[in-house]
TrEMBL record:
Matches recorded under SUPFAM superfamilies: Cytochrome P450
Name of the top EC class for this enzyme: oxidoreductase
Binding site for heme: C447
Superkingdom of this protein's organism: Eukaryota
Stored Pfam families: p450
GO biological process, one term: cholesterol catabolic process
EC number of the protein: 1.14.14.25
PROSITE patterns in the record: CYTOCHROME_P450 (PS00086)
Stated name of the protein: Cholesterol 24-hydroxylase
Catalytic reaction annotation: desmosterol + reduced [NADPH--hemoprotein reductase] + O2 = (24S)-25-epoxycholesterol + oxidized [NADPH--hemoprotein reductase] + H2O + H(+); progesterone + reduced [NADPH--hemoprotein reductase] + O2 = 17alpha-hydroxyprogesterone + oxidized [NADPH--hemoprotein reductase] + H2O + H(+); 7alpha-hydroxycholesterol + reduced [NADPH--hemoprotein reductase] + O2 = (24S)-7alpha-dihydroxycholesterol + oxidized [NADPH--hemoprotein reductase] + H2O + H(+); desmosterol + reduced [NADPH--hemoprotein reductase] + O2 = (24Z),26-hydroxydesmosterol + oxidized [NADPH--hemoprotein reductase] + H2O + H(+)
Length: 500
């Protein structure tokens, strides 16, 4: 009797599973029919869509964004990609980019950005400025953060930019005396991390003096985890990956525990009437108090943004500087012109003033061209909730629209000879790119730290050009590594010599 009952249960269970699978397949067929009028690469298979192509690119260490670029060149400015029942439309049409990115009514795609709320089940970026999908949640946070990132407030950070950059110069002097190659990405990564710690949170950790910092390792692991978790839906299913998954979860926990400690220490100091640094954290707490933002939920959001600052603010600037140094090393004529401008503006003085930054015209062009070829945060997504005609094609609502700055900034239709590093593209008299150049995104969700990042990059690069001659060590790769942000594969290995 019991065996018959079990048999019936197994039969009905299998029948239910089969029915659910059949229903899902019918739904998937409906989704395909809905969007298959749009051009795009052939799906690898009916169920998985293009997931096998993504996994092959990741396993081969090739850059997935290069596949997007090849498809963009082949299929045009609007093409389709599939992942199970999820449809993503890649768009490189300037008019559509303007319409969607500049409007607050097109929210960030919850499928993409909610995946970053947790990292393998551990709260990571939460509902911070980058990941908040709900417009009201985002706007409330942005209103609190804006005063701390205004140009007038950041002007007072020039002392820290100079101080931390001087530490790098001292380190490079040691390396030059020893006549050993310098891995520039590792060095500038330490500087940008020191800057964000000091300018934002009043903490001086001096990462250039640390050989194996758990904090740096945690940032690195979290970046790696972001790519693995978002792009490979099967990654967490295999036991061989469980060790790295646990390491990533521990890293996220370390970042959040550190943030909680620093924020609580500052709150206590403020409540006790102690003198506190007039840094970004103090400004944020002051504004939050004025806005009467004091509950536990808002504290958790503040912690989300602590992690966001470190992941987005430090890593991207370090990568931009690394790529800029790499391209200056590859183009001696550009190097000489940038150095001549720095020497003319600074002369022999060591400290760079806020006013000096505006005089670095050609250096700014170098940094902008660096971000054109190597946008360190190479794309963003919006949710298309309504039907729209894009570049003459009807795109049904209910899908994700992806904007890749990496692709649009490397397309021949927008930039002549796009793979050539040419700062003249950003000369004041050159035609301005029309909604095809957006390394810091566009519209209401444009990067809050854009001014901060470029001020810091100019100070570090100007000091480097003023004080040292550098050349790339032959034989290294100039390929790009994707760790969630884009960075040089080789780390940019240079021979360093102090200027006489």
């Amino acid at each position: 009797m019991i065996s018959e009952w079990v048999s019936f249960m197994m039969f009905y269970l299998l029948a239910a599973v089969f029915s659910a699978f059949l229903a899902y397949c019918l739904y998937l067929r409906h989704v395909h029919q809905k969007y298959d009028h749009l051009p795009g690469p052939p799906r690898d298979n009916f169920l998985l869509g293009h997931i096998p192509s993504f996994r092959r690119a990741m396993k081969s260490k090739s850059l997935l964004h290069d596949s997007f670029l090849q498809w963009g060149e082949k299929y045009g400015p609007v093409y389709r990609m599939n992942s199970f029942h999820y449809v993503m439309i890649m768009v490189h049409c300037p008019e559509a980019t303007k319409t969607i990115m500049m409007s607050p009514k097109y929210l960030k795609d919850p499928f993409v950005y909610k995946r970053l709320f947790n990292l393998f089940g551990k709260r990571f970026l939460g509902n911070g400025l980058i990941t908040a999908v709900d417009h009201d949640t985002w706007y409330r946070q942005r209103r609190i953060m804006d005063p701390a990132f205004s140009s007038s407030y950041l002007r007072g950070s020039m002392g820290t930019f100079n101080e931390m950059s001087e530490r790098l110069m001292d380190k490079l002097e040691e390396i030059a005396e020893m006549k050993t190659p310098a891995v520039m990405h590792d060095l500038v990564n330490c500087v940008t991390l020191d800057v964000i710690c000091k300018v934002a949170f009043g903490v001086d950790l001096n990462f250039l003096m640390q050989t194996d910092s758990p904090f740096q390792n945690a940032v690195e692991l979290c970046l790696k985890g972001m790519v693995l978790d978002i792009r490979d839906p099967f990654f967490r299913l295999f036991p061989k990956n469980w060790k790295i998954i646990q390491q990533v979860k521990d890293a996220a926990e370390l970042l959040r525990k550190t943030g909680h400690k620093w924020i609580q220490n500052r709150k206590t100091a403020v409540e006790n009437g102690e003198d506190v640094p007039q840094d970004i954290l103090t400004q944020i707490l002051r504004t939050a108090d004025e806005e009467k933002v004091t509950n536990a939920k808002d504290d958790e959001l503040m912690l989300d943004n602590f992690v966001t600052f470190f992941i987005a603010g430090q890593e991207t600037t370090a990568n931009q500087l690394s790529f800029a140094i790499m391209e200056l090393g590859r183009h001696p004529e550009i190097y000489k012109r940038a150095k001549a401008e720095v020497d003319e503006v600074l002369g022999t003085k060591r400290d760079i003033s806020y006013e000096d930054l505006g005089k670095f015209t050609y250096l700014s062009q170098v940094l902008k061209e660096t971000l054109r070829l190597y946008p360190t945060a190479p794309g963003t997504n919006r949710w298309l909730h309504e039907d729209m005609v894009i570049n003459g094609l009807r795109v049904p609502g209910g899908c994700s629209v992806a904007f890749s700055s990496y692709v649009s900034q490397r397309l021949e239709m927008f930039f002549k000879d796009p793979l050539k590093f040419d700062p003249e593209r950003f000369d004041v008299n050159a035609p301005k790119p029309y909604y095809c150049y957006y390394p810091f995104s566009l519209g209401p969700r444009i990067c809050l730290g854009q001014v901060f990042s470029q001020m810091e990059a100019k100070v570090v690069l100007a000091k480097l050009l003023q004080r040292f001659e550098f050349s790339l060590v032959p034989g290294q790769s100039f390929s790009i590594k994707d760790t969630g942000t884009l960075r040089p594969m080789s780390g940019v290995i240079c021979n360093i010599k102090a200027c006489s």
